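Give me the fold.
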Amino acid sequence: MHNINQLIENVRENERIARKFFEIERCILSIGRSDQFVATLTKEIEKQFDVPYVWINLINEAPLAHLVDSLERIPDLFDRVVFTRRSHIIDVVKSNSKTVLVNQNIEKYRIITPPVYYGVVASLAVSPLTIDGTLVGLLCQADSDVERYNPQTKDTLLLDQLASKISLCLLNVTAREKLEYLATRDALTGLLNRRQLELMLEREFARAKPGERDLTVIFFDCDAFKVINDTLGHDCGDEVLAYVAQRLLRYVHKQGLAFRFAGDEFVFVLPNKSLEYGLQIAESLSEYLQSNPLNYKSNFVPISISFGGASIEEDKPTTHRQLLKIADERLYHFKHNKRRFVPTKIFKFLNRIR
């Protein structure tokens, strides 16, 4: 009789867990944005299974590289998502496709743990997440109770089932966001495209308020870019543009937006920053590029840029398009100013290799 009662209780417990799984799946299945997915998923697991600490660990490489910038910009996710190299994730789960339970030597797992939980976590469950059979991340659940995820006494079957459901939902989210990413980005540089510049600049212009919240736009292009293209070929020109874009992102990441406008023209937008600050960034970028030429097929290709800027505080534009036009005109004047030296370093280099 005792065995029958125990069996009935086990069935009921499995039904309760199944309902919790269904509730989690229901909450995340229709989500199309990665930030909402991470926030909703981790909070639901905390609520349904009374887990104190839950986070997602994602690789910062393909096929999830496009998620890094958007998720890292959101302060509320600092303890809910961690980006890690694929090699570090593999070190944790090895070749195992099953959940790993840990309650000893927790310090070894700091590489996949949000810093806020250092010294707090006493036991940890790490479940691999996959997309099309490829390891892309980890679902991590942790507790200050050392026995919560004891590998000697706990089974991982339910955790594995939960990870499988989450992997399917993650596939849906990443597929949707990848399509959006491709529609909003320049294919060569990965920067936001001109259409996004129009939309985002209009949005930021509406938010800006003279005397309270400034908005700065910097327009720049590459000096002698056509000559580089004609002399070294379009492959080299593409390398130059990608190199400049990569460095631009380093300067404006987390404080502004970077766009490829057209050809060798770029724009970056700095909400709530002054024109002086924007010009300082442009000058720093210019100095870096001049000091660090592009290494292309054993040649060091010199790069220099010209730039111009405008802001709401300094120029009092009536529309976002006028703000951009002022910055463009100042780029033109900067580039054609008689006092501006001709980029002789570039021409000397090109003449030498012709």
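The longest helix spans residues 2-29.
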